[in-house]
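Sample entry (193 residues):
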Amino acid sequence: MKKIMFNDKYSLTQAVLDGRKTMTRRISKEQIRNSVFWKSGYESIHGYEIKPIYKISELVAIAQCYESLGMNPEIALNDRDGIGFYTKTKFAPGWKNKMFVRADLMPHHIRITDIKIERLQDISDEDCLKEGIYKGQCGSVDTHFMDAYYYKGDIQPYCTPRDAFAELIDKVSGKGTWASDPYVFVYEFELID
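Predicted structure, serialized as tokens:
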């Protein structure tokens, strides 16, 4: 089983667990020709096939560090991924870093329901909401309230879901990501447990 990581600084793992995030975009390392589905993957500008990391209907573990899961820090942990055997879980690399956790020990899973490829800036307002952007209001009782869009970890109101998502993607993937408009694999998913 594979695992998938979501950014915790901006509460994206929690957004998945709460059911507010049901879609994720992963930047393609390769530039893709015409973004046209080709065979079982996509074709790079160099003519070879690029396959998405995940497949439709695939069950994927949501990576969370062992400490945040409340695992017993004193039990032994045999790491089947080749990192080693640890006399206590608290000494394992996955204790504080979810990059090193075992997928089979994760309690929460998603199922991939759809995959598409598009340019990052082709995201719709509806898809921004599926990415964890949420609608709120700004203003005061003395003036008036207006709809605004936010992401967790930021109090700045944005006029559109796309504005909020553009700011979030630059925080998560690095400044300038939105402006560079790379091709992304778009994975839609449902929370299983």
